[in-house]
Amino acid sequence: MGSSRSDSQSSSLISSLFSIIGLLAGAAVVADGSREPKVPCYFIFGDSLFDPGNNNNLNTTMKANYPPYGVDFPSGVATGRYSNGRTTADIIGELLGFESFIPPFASAPNNSEILVGVNYASGSAGLLLETGKFMRMHVMGARKVGVTGLNLIGCTPAAIAMYGDKDLLCVDSMNKLVVPFNERLKAIIDKLNVRFTDAKFVYLDSVTAGGIAGQAFPIKSTACCKVSLATGMCIPNVEPCKTRRAHAFWDAFHPSEAASRLIAPFYLRALKKIL
């Protein structure tokens, strides 16, 4: 089963909304039992899935710096994260032992903060599937890098609303586009490991991570907040659902904090292979 819409429409949705990359950089591992973080620094690149607020003042239409975004964030304030609370990148930072959130680039972190890490992720950012970004990161000192693949984007509430029907849990024609993208990405990672023998790159399987998270929630294909039909984003200042821990998705595109809390440990298990 699947949508009758064309693959070109699905491809456009992938390139504009879902292409993400996450990078973990660190030169050493602190011994187990230490109270220090397990890596000396943590840098994050990506789009709205990892954005901590970099997009707030940019000239884009997809914003998340208003209620009900952030309703479950520690401060209860919408920071610009596309979630009801923490993002997957935030939770990975916690699991690595960082006591504070990695600061967004837009906050102009000071020198001491930069030494610990910076989050460069920004909503509406895209991804060129080429090695140039990786090589630049290597020159700047990145030696341990985790790269996320695409999730099954046809299973998001937005995809189902735009290309599916009420009887479908996923849009198969969109999900079929994920496989060749991820295979090409894994091939690039393999080549990077051969080329840069002093660094380690690992592929983070978003399809499996998303599947694990999806199975854990009774509400899989509808957003927790009331979304705009035009944008798929939460309608400002409208109270979200009370059952946020039961929803895999917060809005029509992004996982709830509860889902991110399942995805992050899965990624970390893969990252431990290179730490």
Automatic annotation (TrEMBL):
InterPro entries: GDSL, GDSL_esterase/lipase, SGNH_hydro_sf
UniProt superkingdom: Eukaryota
Record GO terms (molecular function): hydrolase activity, acting on ester bonds
Residues annotated as signal peptide: 1-33
GO biological process: lipid catabolic process
Predominant place of localization: secreted
Assigned GO CC terms: extracellular region
Assigned keywords, A-Z: Hydrolase, Lipid degradation, Lipid metabolism, Secreted, Signal
Protein location: Secreted
Family per record: Belongs to the 'GDSL' lipolytic enzyme family.
PANTHER family, A to Z: GDSL-LIKE LIPASE/ACYLHYDROLASE-RELATED (PTHR45650), SGNH HYDROLASE-TYPE ESTERASE DOMAIN-CONTAINING PROTEIN (PTHR45650:SF9)
Protein name: GDSL esterase/lipase
Organism: Linum tenue
